[in-house]
Design a protein that fits this description.
The chain is mainly alpha-helical. Helices cover 62% and strands 2% of the residues. A two-stranded antiparallel sheet has the order 1-4. Helix 1 (20-39) runs parallel beside helix 12 (349-366) and helix 9 packs antiparallel against helix 10 (309-332).
Length: 408
């Protein structure tokens, strides 16, 4: 999750206006993500509060949180590319894409490998290892907004942070299934890493063809087709094909992100449909087209775990409609005060995303297991998750107010 921070964007005749709807959409998505991640440890709730297992042809709202993140990455990508090219060359843009992708993957691998660390082969246990590595990453990715006097100190802290990450990667050891010592397991890079790979894959398609109006839609159709053929077993990818070799995977994640780009083009692109009414009609038509395609592809199954096209297209349709409504409320009607509780999280997404992980690793390192044994069943557990989500959002708001920011 990644996720991508929104730059200043052009809206009609006001080039300095920031789209409030993107920040609020991102903030609402991360709030739901924090809630459902914590809710996963609560038992005894109705089935629709959990991910559907791989052997079921169904999906819940929980299965749509990750696609919404991928959609937002695509929604923000054309904006970020345009702003980056205003500041530098195409080469510098690609360097930025590579660094951002690698940073997300490195962070994801830290989160994914913490539980696999073998204390007997390392100086520290996995929870402490993850805390130090995440602290280093936070220092390296921090943004300095103070005076020039403290800029050198901030740069020094960034160097220290990078050194901590490198050191933690260097000392990491796990025990493999054969009983031998192993290094970082890159087979599953967690959500942040998956977003990093998908961001890189979609950038490979979008950036060279960004001047062609219909290119994102064409790429979306191609990716959905590829995804469908993979699920139907007409195209069989080599087993355990690593993402660093083929970041598109079976096409599902990349198609969701590309759909975000299509939506961004509808609302912000240079085309003849300039009127608000025309943009709304296009967006709604696009949403219902994806929902219809999802329905037609239902025989291929509905599953987040299997990454089927029906799952991705239903998620896209819901995301497009949700963003269209938010765009109308927040950017057309200028009604944003109602979203005060998620706006800091939407503007400071990476920090907000990592805060729950810091909390979990601190508790685990300290041996605190209270919530593993209390308030972990039924609606009391759900209330606990709501309170936890509110606390994380409040902490994010305070840190953002104190100008503590992380950005890739």
């Amino acid at each position: 999750m990644a996720t991508v921070q929104t730059a200043a964007v052009e809206v009609t005749a006001k080039p300095s206006v920031r789209l409030a709807s993107i920040d609020i959409f991102r903030g609402l998505t991360i709030a739901v993500m924090i809630f459902v991640n914590d809710l996963a440890s609560v038992h005894g709730l109705p089935w629709w509060n959990y991910h559907m297992p791989a052997n079921k042809d169904a999906m819940t709202y929980v299965d749509m949180v990750y696609p919404f993140f991928l959609f937002i990455v695509g929604l923000s990508l054309p904006i970020a590319v345009k702003q980056r090219l205003k500041k530098g060359s195409t080469l510098s843009l690609w360097v930025h894409v590579l660094i951002r992708s690698a940073s997300l993957i490195v962070l994801g691998l830290i989160l994914a490998n913490a539980e696999k660390a073998d204390p007997a082969r390392m100086v520290i246990n996995g929870n402490v290892w993850a805390l130090i590595a995440m602290l280093g990453a936070a220092l390296y990715l921090s943004i300095y907004t103070g005076s020039e006097r403290g800029e050198k100190t901030h740069r020094l802290l960034q160097v220290v942070g990078l050194a901590l990450v490198v050191a933690m990667y260097a000392i990491f050891r796990r025990t493999t299934h054969t009983g031998d010592a192993g290094w970082i397991d890159g087979s599953y890079p967690e959500i942040l890493g998956l977003i990093g790979y998908t961001y890189f894959a979609v950038s490979l398609l979008y950036i060279p063809t960004r001047r062609w109006l219909w290119a994102p839609l064409g790429w979306l159709v191609a990716l959905v087709t590829f995804n469908s053929l993979c699920i139907a077993k007409w195209i069989v990818l080599p087993r355990h094909l690593p993402l660093y070799f083929w970041p598109f995977d079976n096409g599902a994640m990349a198609s969701i992100t590309m759909a975000g780009i299509v939506t961004s083009v509808i609302f912000l692109g240079d085309h003849r449909w300039k009127e608000l009414r025309e943009k709304i009609i296009l967006a709604v038509a696009f949403a219902f087209a994806t929902l219809l395609a999802a329905r037609l592809l239902t025989p291929l199954g509905i599953s987040k775990i299997r990454a089927t096209p029906t799952w991705s297209l239903y998620s896209v349709g819901a995301a497009v409609l949700s963003f269209t409504i938010l765009y109308w409320i927040c950017d057309v009607k200028k009604q944003t005060r109602w979203a005060f509780f998620v706006q800091p999280a939407g503007a400071n997404t990476l920090l907000t995303y990592l805060l729950p992980d810091f909390y979990y690793f601190i508790l685990a390192a300290a041996g605190i297991t209270y919530f593993e044994n209390h308030f972990n069943y039924g609606w009391p557990g759900a209330v606990r998750s709501v309170i936890f989500t509110a606390c994380i959002l409040a902490i994010s708001a305070v840190l953002t107010k104190w100008k503590v920011r992380l950005q890739l």
